[in-house]
Amino acid sequence: MIEFFKLYYEHLPAWWPQIVPAIGNTIGLTAGAYMLAVVLGLILAVGKTSKIGPFRWFCTGYIEVVRGIPSLAILFLLYFGLVPLGIVLDAFTAGFIGLGLSGSAYIAEVFRAGLEAVHKGQREAALAVGMTPFASFRYITLPQAIRVVLPPLLNMLIMLLKDSSICSLISTPELMLRAKDLASEYFLPMHVYLLIGVLYFALAFPLSLLAKMVQKRMSSSRRVTE
Amino acid sequence: MSDILLRIEDVIKSFDELEVLKGISLELKRGEKIAIIGPSGSGKSTLLRTINYLEIPTSGHIYLDGELVGEKQVEEKFVRTSEKMLARFRAQIGMVFQGFYLWPHLNAIENVAIGPQKVRGISKEKAFALAEEMLAKVHLDHKIKEYPERLSGGQQQRVAIARALAQEPKLMLFDEPTSALDPELVGEVLKVIHELADEGRSMVLVTHEIGFAREVADVVYFMDEGVIVEYGPPEQVFEKPRQTRTKAFLSQLFSH
Known about the structure:
The complex is a heterodimer of chains A (226) and B (256).
Chain A: H1 2-48, H2 53-67, H3 71-81, H4 91-116, H5 120-128, H6 133-163, H7 175-186, H8 189-220
Helix pairs in contact in A: 1-2, 1-4, 1-6, 1-7, 2-4, 3-4, 4-6, 5-6, 6-8, 7-8
Chain B: E1 4-15, E2 18-29, E3 33-37, H1 44-51, E4 59-64, E5 67-68, E6 71-74, E7 77-80, H2 83-90, E8 93-96, H3 108-119, H4 124-137, H5 153-165, E9 171-175, H6 183-198, E10 203-206, H7 210-216, E11 219-224, E12 227-232, H8 234-239, H9 244-255
Parallel strand pairs in B: 3-10, 3-11, 8-9, 9-10
Antiparallel strand pairs in B: 1-2, 1-4, 4-5, 6-7, 11-12
Helix pairs in contact in B: 3-4, 3-5, 4-5, 5-6
């Protein structure tokens, strides 16, 4: 058992300087992809419930299609598949766009459920005081929907953080890729992957605690829906 | 300026196959109070909602202060106006709903102030001062910071009335404002509406409170199955109804 930890003691000083920037990249990749996914997801959710036919069809189609495709296929398509068209994305860009695109389809469904949870009387009351449909969405419907979707939205962030590891397969310089390199370089796969697992957990667990806290606050408050 | 504030002209409203309003016309003079009574499903709430175009009439027209609501006339044809124009009309009409529909993420004063702020673009300070004044009018000046969830039904409905008043509307619409309330809370809301009526405000009130309608209204309309069966001063409609359907409705109401 002591032998096991001794190896960490020996190698960690060499590994650590390589791992730290990779953690930074994983965080950057996740944050970028998440922002893209949230913005796109909100637009798609609005589109799916829109009265404008073509917009609704496009958004509904996008959500269904993207949810049916593995994220990895989207990443390969962006990274390798666009090259013949003369579009060459670097691994980081392809990674964050790919994760963002696939995440947006799931986040769209989260937002849609949140928007539908707001009673239609809420919107009517906003229209009745003279707000435009956009203002009633912006000031009345959306703030209430966000309270509903905050916990699942945080869960999506955790999913995305873990899924960012598949970007190692298109050589995005993130944590998992670094782990793969270190594992083969030092012939210590168990040590390296255990360490990496702990690091992912250390990133995800606070988010998961936060999600639980938010969920508790939301459910103890009837302010959410009416 | 004409004496007529609101004119409803031959309004028909259908939901798919079902015709809910079968050609309704009525006029309301400035300062007049109209009560609409009738059995549930008679179309009275739908009629009220067509006035500010929350329901779009299948045919017929609404005029507020002589201007077409939700439509404009291009040569001989009527066409829908933009949502922006429509919002401008709705801002002139205050509406109070059966279900209150206060915005739960805003406290009482914010519920009242957000309309003036976002619709008329007045400053936050002015909007809050106005909101405070309106909440005082509905006797809730001590509850301005409370969130809707912490208010009773009667208090919520009074905030909703203050919210409508803050629009400084030409016309107030009340859609069964006390039907969702516990009996002991009905009085406080009716009292506020009564005070507004006494100020000479123009209003259309859909209600089941016959006694109140009788006290407040200048004209009572009785609706059944999407038509106006009869109308007139309250004494006449309640005491000497001319139509058998009105008689039947009233006797059923008082037999309980």
